[in-house]
Amino acid sequence: MYKTLLTLLFFFSLHFSYSQDTIVYFTDAIKENINPYKKASNKAYESNDIAEGKKLFDSLVKTKLIGTKFDDFNLKVYKEKNVKINRISKPIFIITYASWCVIPKGEIPALNILAKEHRRDLQFIVVFWDKKNDIKNIANKFNDYIKVCYANEYYARDSHIISTVKHTLGFPTSIFIDENKNVVNIKHFENIIKLKTPIKEAIITSYNYFSKDINENLVKSAPKNKSFTTN
To answer: Burial code of 36-47, b = ≥16 C-beta within 10 A, e = fewer?
Structure first.
């Protein structure tokens, strides 16, 4: 009964869906809907109801965030010049991390392989919620097909992306954006690799996990007259 009331409270607290003709920016959708979500989500996690918390997050994404226009964030790239989201002409796959969180075994090599395979049809971006010096040891583990970026409360110009993305979606989180910068999907991804898993098996498992998600989102975001390749 508690779970049902909690879910209903969350759904009825959300604003009505937007018209298809209305351009709604991601940050505006977050501002309008994050308070009822946080209230319901906090209650769920306080009761150790992980499944209900996940259900609430997935509902927020599906009903209020998918289809919004992702903001033109200015990202600081570790090895390159800053890049603005709107200057990237391809769909974008963003993954958010923090340097103090251990990235599962095999995940970085798997992402490197996928980024190379999808170099023509997809831009991979990894965002660490850290200062530049904090990621110097890990940034070099990603290949040149992945833009390794960083954002932190320490930098005044990062306040917008920190408050909108980090403090609302949490991490690790993936965000898939189509070439028109519309949000296609957002998800929390879990560590599915056990500590003693052999490295080759870990890479294959991570590769299959992310590949399935990426290809499904590419199909969703592709114009009807456009196809994509992975080689």
So the answer is: bbeebbebbeee
User: Whole-angstrom Cα distance, residue 100 to residue 230?
Assistant: 32
Q: How far is CA 131 from CA 25, 137, 154, 182, 224, in A?
A: 27, 12, 7, 28, 41
DSSP state string for 45-73: HHTT-HHHHHHHHHHHIIIIITTSBPP--
Neighbours of 215 (CB within 10 A): 15
Which two three-digit tokens encode residue 76?
A: 């600081």
Inform me whether the pLDDT recorded for 8 exceeds 50: no
Question: β-strand 83-84 against 74-77: which pairing, if any?
Answer: antiparallel
**Beta bridge partners of residue 128, listed in sequence order:** 97, 150
pLDDT of residue 231: 55
User: What pLDDT shows up at residue 23?
Assistant: 86
Half-sphere exposure of 36 (CA within 13 A, CB side): 17
pLDDT in tens, 10-67: 444 444 444 456 789 999 999 999 888 988 888 888 888 888 988 999 999 999 999 9
Catalogue all structural domains in the chain, each as residue range(s) with its CATH number.
2-65 (no CATH), 74-221 (3.40.30.10)
Which H or E run contains 118?
Answer: none
Q: Please give the Cα distance from 209 to 214 (Å, whole number).
A: 9
Look-up of token digits 């999907």: 185
206, two tokens: 């991570």
Beta strand spans in 54-210 (E): 74-77, 83-84, 92-97, 123-128, 146-150, 173-177, 183-188
Can you tell me the distance from the alpha carbon of 31 to that of 159, in angstroms, rounded to the nearest whole number? 14
